[in-house]
Protein backbone atom coordinates (compact mmCIF):
# COMPACT_ATOMS: atom_id res chain seq x y z
CA UNK A 1 0.00 0.00 0.00
CA UNK A 2 1.36 3.43 -0.93
CA UNK A 3 1.71 6.30 1.57
CA UNK A 4 -1.28 7.99 -0.04
CA UNK A 5 -3.37 4.85 0.30
CA UNK A 6 -2.30 4.41 3.94
CA UNK A 7 -3.38 7.97 4.65
CA UNK A 8 -6.71 7.36 2.93
CA UNK A 9 -7.25 4.14 4.85
CA UNK A 10 -6.49 5.83 8.18
CA UNK A 11 -8.90 8.62 7.28
CA UNK A 12 -11.54 6.06 6.42
CA UNK A 13 -11.15 4.31 9.74
CA UNK A 14 -11.63 7.63 11.53
CA UNK A 15 -14.77 8.38 9.52
CA UNK A 16 -17.98 7.54 11.41
CA UNK A 17 -19.17 4.08 10.49
CA UNK A 18 -16.13 3.30 8.38
CA UNK A 19 -17.18 5.42 5.39
CA UNK A 20 -14.52 6.17 2.77
CA UNK A 21 -12.85 9.56 2.51
CA UNK A 22 -14.42 12.13 0.21
CA UNK A 23 -11.89 11.59 -2.55
CA UNK A 24 -12.15 7.78 -2.50
CA UNK A 25 -9.29 5.33 -2.94
CA UNK A 26 -7.60 4.52 -6.21
CA UNK A 27 -5.20 1.73 -7.06
CA UNK A 28 -5.06 -2.00 -6.48
CA UNK A 29 -4.76 -3.09 -2.84
CA UNK A 30 -2.85 -6.32 -2.26
CA UNK A 31 -2.20 -8.14 0.99
CA UNK A 32 -4.01 -5.66 3.29
CA UNK A 33 -6.97 -6.45 5.51
CA UNK A 34 -10.10 -4.91 3.92
CA UNK A 35 -11.71 -1.93 5.64
CA UNK A 36 -15.41 -2.53 6.40
CA UNK A 37 -17.57 -0.06 4.50
CA UNK A 38 -20.51 0.47 6.84
CA UNK A 39 -22.07 3.81 5.97
CA UNK A 40 -22.42 5.99 2.85
CA UNK A 41 -20.21 9.07 3.14
CA UNK A 42 -23.19 11.48 3.17
CA UNK A 43 -25.47 9.06 5.03
CA UNK A 44 -28.44 7.18 3.59
CA UNK A 45 -30.25 9.41 1.08
CA UNK A 46 -34.05 9.66 1.32
CA UNK A 47 -36.07 7.45 -0.99
CA UNK A 48 -37.42 9.44 -3.94
CA UNK A 49 -41.05 8.46 -4.53
CA UNK A 50 -42.76 11.64 -5.77
CA UNK A 51 -42.56 13.69 -8.94
CA UNK A 52 -41.39 16.76 -7.02
CA UNK A 53 -38.53 14.90 -5.35
CA UNK A 54 -37.64 13.24 -8.67
CA UNK A 55 -37.41 16.66 -10.36
CA UNK A 56 -34.87 17.75 -7.74
CA UNK A 57 -32.78 14.63 -8.33
CA UNK A 58 -32.90 15.11 -12.10
CA UNK A 59 -31.69 18.69 -11.75
CA UNK A 60 -28.89 17.68 -9.37
CA UNK A 61 -27.63 14.85 -11.56
CA UNK A 62 -27.88 16.91 -14.74
CA UNK A 63 -25.65 19.51 -13.05
CA UNK A 64 -23.23 16.88 -11.75
CA UNK A 65 -19.87 16.05 -13.29
CA UNK A 66 -18.16 12.92 -14.53
CA UNK A 67 -19.66 9.47 -14.98
CA UNK A 68 -22.73 8.28 -13.09
CA UNK A 69 -22.82 5.05 -11.08
CA UNK A 70 -26.10 3.16 -11.59
CA UNK A 71 -27.55 0.05 -9.98
CA UNK A 72 -31.01 -1.50 -9.73
CA UNK A 73 -32.63 -3.93 -7.32
CA UNK A 74 -35.24 -6.45 -8.46
CA UNK A 75 -37.47 -8.88 -6.58
CA UNK A 76 -36.42 -12.07 -8.34
CA UNK A 77 -38.02 -15.10 -6.73
CA UNK A 78 -40.74 -12.97 -5.16
CA UNK A 79 -42.50 -11.06 -7.93
CA UNK A 80 -43.48 -11.79 -11.51
CA UNK A 81 -40.98 -10.56 -14.09
CA UNK A 82 -37.76 -8.67 -13.59
CA UNK A 83 -38.92 -5.09 -13.00
CA UNK A 84 -36.83 -2.69 -10.93
CA UNK A 85 -38.00 -1.90 -7.40
CA UNK A 86 -35.17 0.46 -6.50
CA UNK A 87 -32.70 2.45 -8.60
CA UNK A 88 -29.48 3.76 -7.06
CA UNK A 89 -27.31 6.48 -8.57
CA UNK A 90 -24.20 8.41 -7.62
CA UNK A 91 -22.38 11.22 -9.44
CA UNK A 92 -19.77 13.79 -8.62
CA UNK A 93 -21.40 17.01 -7.44
CA UNK A 94 -24.78 15.30 -6.99
CA UNK A 95 -24.08 12.70 -4.31
CA UNK A 96 -26.21 9.55 -4.13
CA UNK A 97 -29.91 9.03 -4.82
CA UNK A 98 -32.32 6.18 -4.17
CA UNK A 99 -35.37 6.22 -6.46
CA UNK A 100 -38.51 4.14 -6.00
CA UNK A 101 -39.79 3.08 -9.46
CA UNK A 102 -43.14 2.15 -7.90
CA UNK A 103 -43.77 5.76 -6.94
CA UNK A 104 -41.90 7.11 -9.98
CA UNK A 105 -42.51 4.55 -12.74
CA UNK A 106 -41.27 6.78 -15.59
CA UNK A 107 -37.62 7.79 -15.30
CA UNK A 108 -37.20 8.77 -18.94
CA UNK A 109 -36.61 12.41 -17.95
CA UNK A 110 -33.71 11.26 -15.77
CA UNK A 111 -32.41 9.14 -18.62
CA UNK A 112 -32.62 12.17 -20.93
CA UNK A 113 -30.76 14.34 -18.39
CA UNK A 114 -27.92 11.79 -18.37
CA UNK A 115 -27.81 11.40 -22.16
CA UNK A 116 -24.20 11.26 -23.32
CA UNK A 117 -22.91 10.64 -19.79
CA UNK A 118 -20.97 7.45 -19.16
CA UNK A 119 -22.91 5.07 -16.93
CA UNK A 120 -21.01 2.75 -14.62
CA UNK A 121 -22.76 -0.55 -13.93
CA UNK A 122 -21.62 -3.85 -12.50
CA UNK A 123 -22.79 -6.74 -14.69
CA UNK A 124 -24.63 -4.31 -16.97
CA UNK A 125 -26.59 -6.91 -18.94
CA UNK A 126 -28.43 -7.93 -15.75
CA UNK A 127 -29.75 -4.44 -14.99
CA UNK A 128 -30.19 -2.89 -18.43
CA UNK A 129 -33.50 -4.68 -19.27
CA UNK A 130 -35.27 -3.46 -16.12
CA UNK A 131 -33.78 0.03 -16.50
CA UNK A 132 -34.98 0.15 -20.10
CA UNK A 133 -38.54 -0.61 -18.92
CA UNK A 134 -38.58 2.61 -16.87
CA UNK A 135 -37.01 4.79 -19.56
CA UNK A 136 -33.32 4.67 -18.63
CA UNK A 137 -31.08 3.68 -21.55
CA UNK A 138 -27.37 4.57 -21.58
CA UNK A 139 -25.52 5.60 -24.72
CA UNK A 140 -22.13 5.01 -23.09
CA UNK A 141 -21.24 2.66 -20.27
CA UNK A 142 -18.43 1.09 -18.28
CA UNK A 143 -19.10 -2.40 -16.92
CA UNK A 144 -16.91 -3.03 -13.87
CA UNK A 145 -17.62 -6.77 -13.84
CA UNK A 146 -16.64 -7.19 -17.49
CA UNK A 147 -13.61 -4.97 -16.93
CA UNK A 148 -12.58 -7.31 -14.11
CA UNK A 149 -12.90 -10.34 -16.37
CA UNK A 150 -10.78 -8.76 -19.08
CA UNK A 151 -8.19 -7.71 -16.51
CA UNK A 152 -7.91 -11.30 -15.30
CA UNK A 153 -9.38 -11.01 -11.81
CA UNK A 154 -10.35 -14.48 -10.52
CA UNK A 155 -13.45 -13.18 -8.68
CA UNK A 156 -15.55 -10.47 -10.30
CA UNK A 157 -18.55 -10.04 -8.00
CA UNK A 158 -18.95 -6.45 -6.81
CA UNK A 159 -17.91 -7.24 -3.25
CA UNK A 160 -14.85 -9.18 -4.37
CA UNK A 161 -13.82 -6.45 -6.82
CA UNK A 162 -14.21 -3.61 -4.32
CA UNK A 163 -12.19 -5.60 -1.80
CA UNK A 164 -9.36 -6.65 -4.11
CA UNK A 165 -9.09 -3.37 -6.02
CA UNK A 166 -9.99 -0.72 -3.44
CA UNK A 167 -9.42 -2.51 -0.15
CA UNK A 168 -12.94 -2.12 1.24
CA UNK A 169 -15.34 -4.85 2.40
CA UNK A 170 -18.96 -4.41 1.32
CA UNK A 171 -21.76 -5.96 3.36
CA UNK A 172 -23.70 -8.19 0.91
CA UNK A 173 -26.33 -9.68 3.22
CA UNK A 174 -29.37 -8.15 1.51
CA UNK A 175 -28.76 -9.07 -2.12
CA UNK A 176 -31.58 -11.63 -2.31
CA UNK A 177 -34.29 -9.91 -0.25
CA UNK A 178 -37.74 -8.97 -1.52
CA UNK A 179 -37.11 -5.47 -2.84
CA UNK A 180 -40.83 -4.99 -3.53
CA UNK A 181 -41.30 -4.63 0.26
CA UNK A 182 -42.66 -1.22 1.27
CA UNK A 183 -41.43 0.63 3.19
CA UNK A 184 -37.90 -0.61 2.57
CA UNK A 185 -36.05 -1.23 5.85
CA UNK A 186 -33.16 1.11 6.64
CA UNK A 187 -30.49 -1.65 6.57
CA UNK A 188 -31.58 -2.52 3.01
CA UNK A 189 -31.39 1.12 1.96
CA UNK A 190 -27.91 1.40 3.45
CA UNK A 191 -26.83 -1.70 1.53
CA UNK A 192 -28.32 -0.29 -1.69
CA UNK A 193 -26.58 3.07 -1.30
CA UNK A 194 -23.25 1.38 -0.62
CA UNK A 195 -23.56 -0.57 -3.88
CA UNK A 196 -22.91 2.65 -5.83
CA UNK A 197 -20.72 4.34 -3.23
CA UNK A 198 -17.42 3.23 -4.76
CA UNK A 199 -18.37 2.36 -8.35
CA UNK A 200 -16.71 5.48 -9.72
CA UNK A 201 -13.51 4.72 -7.77
CA UNK A 202 -13.63 1.12 -8.97
CA UNK A 203 -14.13 2.23 -12.56
CA UNK A 204 -11.11 4.57 -12.42
CA UNK A 205 -8.84 1.92 -10.90
CA UNK A 206 -9.92 -0.70 -13.44
CA UNK A 207 -9.42 1.70 -16.34
CA UNK A 208 -5.87 2.26 -15.14
CA UNK A 209 -5.30 -1.48 -14.76
CA UNK A 210 -6.65 -2.22 -18.25
CA UNK A 211 -4.50 0.56 -19.71
CA UNK A 212 -1.40 -0.94 -18.09
CA UNK A 213 -2.27 -4.38 -19.48
CA UNK A 214 -2.92 -3.01 -22.98
CA UNK A 215 -6.57 -4.09 -22.82
CA UNK A 216 -8.42 -0.82 -22.44
CA UNK A 217 -9.38 -0.61 -26.11
CA UNK A 218 -10.75 -4.16 -25.92
CA UNK A 219 -12.91 -3.18 -22.96
CA UNK A 220 -14.20 -0.03 -24.65
CA UNK A 221 -15.27 -2.08 -27.68
CA UNK A 222 -17.09 -4.53 -25.40
CA UNK A 223 -18.85 -1.70 -23.56
CA UNK A 224 -19.94 -0.12 -26.85
CA UNK A 225 -21.35 -3.47 -27.99
CA UNK A 226 -23.44 -3.76 -24.81
CA UNK A 227 -24.72 -0.20 -25.01
CA UNK A 228 -25.71 -0.53 -28.67
CA UNK A 229 -27.27 -4.00 -28.44
CA UNK A 230 -31.02 -4.07 -29.15
CA UNK A 231 -33.39 -5.53 -26.54
CA UNK A 232 -33.40 -9.32 -26.52
CA UNK A 233 -36.41 -10.79 -28.33
CA UNK A 234 -38.90 -12.87 -26.32
CA UNK A 235 -37.69 -16.42 -25.82
CA UNK A 236 -39.37 -18.98 -28.08
CA UNK A 237 -41.19 -21.77 -26.21
CA UNK A 238 -40.02 -20.68 -22.73
CA UNK A 239 -41.81 -23.68 -21.21
CA UNK A 240 -39.05 -25.88 -22.63
CA UNK A 241 -36.70 -24.42 -20.02
CA UNK A 242 -38.67 -25.98 -17.16
CA UNK A 243 -36.17 -27.47 -14.72
CA UNK A 244 -36.15 -31.26 -15.03
CA UNK A 245 -37.41 -31.16 -18.62
CA UNK A 246 -34.77 -33.71 -19.61
CA UNK A 247 -36.87 -36.40 -17.88
CA UNK A 248 -39.82 -35.72 -20.19
CA UNK A 249 -39.53 -37.91 -23.30
CA UNK A 250 -42.96 -38.39 -24.83
CA UNK A 251 -44.78 -35.70 -26.79
CA UNK A 252 -47.96 -36.07 -24.74
CA UNK A 253 -45.96 -35.49 -21.59
CA UNK A 254 -44.35 -32.46 -23.19
CA UNK A 255 -47.83 -31.10 -23.88
CA UNK A 256 -48.64 -31.41 -20.17
CA UNK A 257 -45.55 -29.37 -19.31
CA UNK A 258 -46.57 -26.73 -21.84
CA UNK A 259 -50.17 -26.50 -20.56
CA UNK A 260 -49.20 -26.41 -16.89
CA UNK A 261 -46.40 -23.89 -17.51
CA UNK A 262 -48.78 -21.62 -19.44
CA UNK A 263 -51.51 -21.86 -16.79
CA UNK A 264 -49.00 -21.19 -14.01
CA UNK A 265 -47.57 -18.18 -15.86
CA UNK A 266 -51.03 -16.65 -16.23
CA UNK A 267 -51.72 -17.07 -12.50
CA UNK A 268 -48.31 -15.69 -11.54
CA UNK A 269 -48.73 -12.66 -13.77
CA UNK A 270 -52.21 -11.97 -12.44
CA UNK A 271 -51.07 -12.27 -8.81
CA UNK A 272 -47.68 -10.58 -9.46
CA UNK A 273 -45.73 -13.34 -7.79
CA UNK A 274 -42.83 -15.50 -8.92
CA UNK A 275 -44.10 -18.51 -10.93
CA UNK A 276 -42.19 -20.84 -8.62
CA UNK A 277 -44.35 -19.67 -5.73
CA UNK A 278 -47.47 -20.70 -7.64
CA UNK A 279 -46.33 -24.17 -8.70
CA UNK A 280 -42.83 -25.62 -8.71
CA UNK A 281 -41.07 -26.87 -11.83
CA UNK A 282 -40.65 -30.21 -10.08
CA UNK A 283 -44.43 -30.53 -9.64
CA UNK A 284 -45.01 -29.75 -13.34
CA UNK A 285 -42.57 -32.46 -14.38
CA UNK A 286 -44.14 -34.98 -11.97
CA UNK A 287 -47.58 -34.34 -13.45
CA UNK A 288 -46.21 -34.67 -16.99
CA UNK A 289 -44.62 -38.03 -16.23
CA UNK A 290 -47.69 -39.40 -14.41
CA UNK A 291 -50.43 -38.02 -16.70
CA UNK A 292 -53.01 -38.12 -13.84
CA UNK A 293 -56.53 -38.94 -14.97
CA UNK A 294 -58.31 -36.95 -12.23
CA UNK A 295 -57.82 -34.62 -9.27
CA UNK A 296 -57.50 -37.55 -6.88
CA UNK A 297 -54.56 -38.93 -8.83
CA UNK A 298 -53.04 -35.46 -9.11
CA UNK A 299 -53.24 -34.94 -5.35
CA UNK A 300 -51.07 -38.00 -4.78
CA UNK A 301 -48.16 -36.47 -6.75
CA UNK A 302 -45.31 -34.53 -5.11
CA UNK A 303 -46.04 -30.80 -5.19
CA UNK A 304 -49.84 -31.24 -5.24
CA UNK A 305 -50.39 -32.12 -1.59
CA UNK A 306 -53.31 -31.53 0.74
CA UNK A 307 -52.24 -27.95 1.46
CA UNK A 308 -53.32 -27.04 -2.05
CA UNK A 309 -56.94 -25.92 -2.31
CA UNK A 310 -59.55 -27.77 -4.34
CA UNK A 311 -59.90 -24.93 -6.84
CA UNK A 312 -56.14 -24.89 -7.44
CA UNK A 313 -56.06 -28.65 -7.95
CA UNK A 314 -58.94 -28.46 -10.41
CA UNK A 315 -57.14 -25.69 -12.27
CA UNK A 316 -53.99 -27.81 -12.69
CA UNK A 317 -55.98 -30.91 -13.59
CA UNK A 318 -57.81 -28.93 -16.26
CA UNK A 319 -54.43 -28.10 -17.80
CA UNK A 320 -53.47 -31.77 -17.76
CA UNK A 321 -56.81 -32.68 -19.31
CA UNK A 322 -56.26 -30.16 -22.12
CA UNK A 323 -52.97 -31.83 -22.94
CA UNK A 324 -54.53 -35.29 -22.81
CA UNK A 325 -57.22 -34.19 -25.26
CA UNK A 326 -54.88 -32.85 -27.94
CA UNK A 327 -54.61 -34.67 -31.24
CA UNK A 328 -51.22 -36.05 -32.26
CA UNK A 329 -50.81 -33.19 -34.75
CA UNK A 330 -51.24 -30.64 -31.95
CA UNK A 331 -48.55 -32.12 -29.70
CA UNK A 332 -45.23 -30.29 -29.43
CA UNK A 333 -42.27 -31.68 -31.29
CA UNK A 334 -39.37 -33.03 -29.23
CA UNK A 335 -36.43 -30.68 -28.86
CA UNK A 336 -36.08 -27.14 -30.15
CA UNK A 337 -35.40 -26.24 -33.77
CA UNK A 338 -31.66 -26.40 -34.36
CA UNK A 339 -30.37 -23.10 -35.76
CA UNK A 340 -26.67 -23.81 -35.42
CA UNK A 341 -24.24 -26.72 -35.46
CA UNK A 342 -25.08 -29.95 -33.62
CA UNK A 343 -23.72 -30.61 -30.13
CA UNK A 344 -19.92 -31.11 -30.30
CA UNK A 345 -20.21 -34.64 -28.88
CA UNK A 346 -21.92 -35.67 -32.13
CA UNK A 347 -19.32 -34.16 -34.45
CA UNK A 348 -16.97 -37.15 -34.56
CA UNK A 349 -19.74 -39.30 -36.06
CA UNK A 350 -21.38 -36.66 -38.26
CA UNK A 351 -18.25 -34.93 -39.60
CA UNK A 352 -14.84 -36.13 -38.35
CA UNK A 353 -13.05 -33.32 -40.21
CA UNK A 354 -15.18 -30.70 -38.43
CA UNK A 355 -14.44 -32.40 -35.11
CA UNK A 356 -10.71 -32.15 -35.85
CA UNK A 357 -11.06 -28.46 -36.75
CA UNK A 358 -12.94 -27.77 -33.52
CA UNK A 359 -10.38 -29.59 -31.40
CA UNK A 360 -7.52 -27.62 -32.93
CA UNK A 361 -9.37 -24.31 -32.64
CA UNK A 362 -10.35 -24.89 -29.02
CA UNK A 363 -6.77 -25.74 -28.05
CA UNK A 364 -5.44 -22.61 -29.74
CA UNK A 365 -8.07 -20.34 -28.19
CA UNK A 366 -7.46 -21.84 -24.76
CA UNK A 367 -3.71 -21.30 -25.00
CA UNK A 368 -4.08 -17.66 -26.11
CA UNK A 369 -6.68 -16.91 -23.41
CA UNK A 370 -4.31 -18.28 -20.78
CA UNK A 371 -1.45 -16.21 -22.19
CA UNK A 372 -3.61 -13.06 -22.13
CA UNK A 373 -4.97 -13.88 -18.64
CA UNK A 374 -8.64 -13.64 -19.50
CA UNK A 375 -11.53 -16.14 -19.74
CA UNK A 376 -11.82 -18.04 -23.03
CA UNK A 377 -15.43 -16.95 -23.50
CA UNK A 378 -14.36 -13.30 -23.38
CA UNK A 379 -11.65 -13.85 -25.96
CA UNK A 380 -14.26 -15.38 -28.29
CA UNK A 381 -17.58 -17.07 -27.60
CA UNK A 382 -17.58 -20.89 -27.86
CA UNK A 383 -20.65 -20.68 -30.13
CA UNK A 384 -18.73 -18.54 -32.63
CA UNK A 385 -15.87 -21.04 -32.73
CA UNK A 386 -18.32 -23.92 -33.23
CA UNK A 387 -20.17 -22.20 -36.06
CA UNK A 388 -17.02 -21.37 -37.99
CA UNK A 389 -15.51 -24.82 -37.48
CA UNK A 390 -18.74 -26.53 -38.56
CA UNK A 391 -19.17 -24.43 -41.71
CA UNK A 392 -15.76 -22.87 -42.44
CA UNK A 393 -15.06 -20.55 -45.37
CA UNK A 394 -14.26 -22.44 -48.59
CA UNK A 395 -10.79 -20.89 -48.52
CA UNK A 396 -9.79 -20.21 -44.89
CA UNK A 397 -7.81 -17.04 -45.50
CA UNK A 398 -7.32 -14.22 -43.03
CA UNK A 399 -9.88 -12.12 -44.89
CA UNK A 400 -12.55 -14.83 -45.11
CA UNK A 401 -12.16 -15.94 -41.49
CA UNK A 402 -12.22 -12.32 -40.27
CA UNK A 403 -15.43 -11.78 -42.22
CA UNK A 404 -16.96 -14.91 -40.69
CA UNK A 405 -16.02 -13.78 -37.18
CA UNK A 406 -17.49 -10.34 -37.77
CA UNK A 407 -20.74 -11.84 -39.08
CA UNK A 408 -21.01 -13.78 -35.82
CA UNK A 409 -20.75 -10.57 -33.81
CA UNK A 410 -17.08 -10.66 -32.83
CA UNK A 411 -15.60 -7.27 -31.98
CA UNK A 412 -12.59 -5.92 -33.91
CA UNK A 413 -10.12 -6.74 -31.13
CA UNK A 414 -11.38 -10.33 -31.06
CA UNK A 415 -11.20 -10.62 -34.84
CA UNK A 416 -7.60 -9.39 -34.80
CA UNK A 417 -6.49 -11.88 -32.14
CA UNK A 418 -8.51 -14.94 -33.12
CA UNK A 419 -8.32 -14.85 -36.92
CA UNK A 420 -4.75 -16.22 -37.14
CA UNK A 421 -5.64 -19.05 -34.74
CA UNK A 422 -8.67 -20.12 -36.76
CA UNK A 423 -6.89 -19.84 -40.09
CA UNK A 424 -4.24 -22.23 -38.79
CA UNK A 425 -6.79 -24.61 -37.26
CA UNK A 426 -8.98 -24.68 -40.37
CA UNK A 427 -6.02 -25.08 -42.75
CA UNK A 428 -4.14 -27.74 -40.81
CA UNK A 429 -7.19 -30.03 -40.67
CA UNK A 430 -8.46 -29.43 -44.19
UniProtKB/TrEMBL annotation:
Cite the PROSITE patterns for this sequence: HRDC
Sorted alphabetically, the Gene Ontology BP terms of this entry are:
nucleobase-containing compound metabolic process
Q: Where is this region: Disordered?
A: 1-25, 328-349
What InterPro entries would the database entry show? Answer: 3'-5'_exonuclease_dom, Exo_C, HRDC-like_sf, HRDC_dom, HRDC_dom_sf, RNase_D-like, RNaseH-like_sf, RNaseH_sf
**All copies of domain HRDC, residue ranges:** 250-330
Q: List, alphabetically, the Pfam families matched.
A: DNA_pol_A_exo1, DNA_pol_A_exoN, HRDC
Claim: Aminoacyl-tRNA synthetase is one of the keywords in the record: no
Biased composition range(s): Low complexity: 16-25
Q: Which UniProt keywords apply?
A: Exonuclease, Hydrolase, Nuclease
The Swiss-Prot or TrEMBL record annotates one GO molecular function as: nucleotide binding
Any idea what this protein is called? 3'-5' exonuclease
Organism whose genome encodes this protein: Streptomyces purpureus
